[in-house]
Write a sequence for this structure.
């Protein structure tokens, strides 16, 4: 079945450091890919998305490119801030079914220290 | 503010008790779903609904019931609580396809002792 794998955390970075969180997926069809972010004590929020190969999703300085050849959707940010501390979830949605269920990865916790 | 409202935020149950987790949204979203979040496992789909009167099972439905009598409300019922149901529960809604993105509630932290 479809699945999402993320790099294990927690990840700790200093402010202004470069961030990469790796995400790879397995899907039978042509999924859409997402990154969600969960701040402490809150529900998940959609951060960015990409719907087809080579699409780049971007939001709030974060970027991710849909790489079909490597089945990857790595999240990047050039300069992280303390306010970026959160848990990041990679997810996919395969529209091959009657209800496009979203499958989430296990999440990667990010802590940014001043 | 518009969004997904979940109640209660925290709950402690004894094994065998039943309870209902409430979820309401005021965005006129057709799709609603319940997830549970456990450490190291991400979010797993319990039940979902594509409209009033229509529900279906997700990945981990055992021990839970749902109903969708209105577009706004999607309650999750625990029939006989077990310690394995200790988790954080999230309700989510979307306008239609997942491509529009889900809006999540702030969660219910449930402990079964």
């Amino acid at each position: 079945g479809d699945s999402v794998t993320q790099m294990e955390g927690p990840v700790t970075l200093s402010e202004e450091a470069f961030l990469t969180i790796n995400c790879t997926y397995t899907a039978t069809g042509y999924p859409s890919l997402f990154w969600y972010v969960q701040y402490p004590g809150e529900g998940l929020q959609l951060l960015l998305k990409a719907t087809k190969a080579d699409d780049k999703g971007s939001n709030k300085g974060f970027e991710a490119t849909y790489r079909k050849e490597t089945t990857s959707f790595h999240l990047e940010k050039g300069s992280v801030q303390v306010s970026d501390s959160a848990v990041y979830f990679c997810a996919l949605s395969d529209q091959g079914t009657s209800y496009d269920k979203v499958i989430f990865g296990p999440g990667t916790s990010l802590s940014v220290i001043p | 503010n518009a969004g997904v409202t979940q109640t209660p935020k925290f709950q402690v149950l004894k094994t065998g008790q039943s309870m209902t987790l409430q979820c309401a949204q005021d965005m006129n979203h057709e799709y609603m779903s319940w997830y549970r979040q456990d450490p190291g496992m991400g979010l797993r789909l319990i039940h979902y609904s594509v409209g009033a009167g229509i529900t279906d099972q997700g990945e981990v439905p055992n021990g839970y019931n749902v109903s969708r009598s209105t577009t706004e409300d999607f309650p999750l019922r625990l029939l006989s609580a077990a310690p394995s149901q200790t988790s954080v529960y999230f309700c989510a809604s979307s306008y239609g396809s997942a491509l529009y993105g889900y809006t999540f509630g702030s969660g219910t932290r449930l402990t079964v002792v």
